[in-house]
Amino acid sequence: MLDVQTFRAVVENSPLVSIDICLVCDGQILLGDRNNEPLKGEWFTPGGRTHKNESWQDALLRISEVESGLSDVTIQDFSLMGMWDHFYENSVVDKDVSTHYVNLPHYTSFQSRPTIVSDDQHALFKWFDLKSVSVEAIFHPYIRNYSIWLLDKMDNIHD
Question: What superfamily would CATH give domain 4-158?
């Protein structure tokens, strides 16, 4: 772990590599009400940054377990959704310090809703209809984009 001053310098001067996890079941996506900036108070997927000397595979499994309690998933359960840039005007370190994430979102689908364990990053978790999330302005544009991507993926699977 980095001390606060060092982490602030990193956030101010370089992008962070992060992984969001999109958990899908019966046409719904799991979102959490965020406790921290950026996006405090917004519905967003569980996710987190990778650590130095941590492979993206290890980060994906760690984030899945820490942020949602999923300890029985494997790398093979997930599919990469591509590489996405996320830009925010603020950050966890300061409201005046912007954040840039190079994000590697992954998704997995479940036949029945998994048991999700709450964490310190989210006030609560809730399942939302993908089609609604893709169009409703109450959801952040990045989450709407994820939902559109997932809906398109699901449509292509059924074709």
Answer: Nucleoside Triphosphate Pyrophosphohydrolase (3.90.79.10)
Amino acid at 22: C
Q: How far is CA 28 from CA 3, 7, 105, 132, in A?
A: 38, 35, 17, 9
The whole-number average pLDDT for the span 111-139 is 93
Distance from C-alpha of 159 to C-alpha of 150, rounded to nearest angstrom: 14
Mean pLDDT of the chain: 94
pTM over 0.90? The answer is yes
Q: Using CA atoms, how far apart are residues 88 and 47, in angstroms rounded to an integer?
A: 15
Distance in angstroms between the alpha carbons of the first and the last residue of the chain? 46
Whole-number percent of the chain with pLDDT over 90 = 84
pLDDT band at 38 (very low <50, low <70, confident <90, very high): very high
Instruction: Quote the CA–CA distance of 101 and 19 in Å, as a whole number.
Output: 9
Tokens 């997995």 correspond to 108
Beta strands at 106-110 and 16-25: parallel, antiparallel or unpaired: parallel
Residue 20 has pLDDT above 70, yes or no: yes
Q: Two tokens at 118?
A: 């709450």
CA 139 – CA 159 distance, rounded (Å):
28
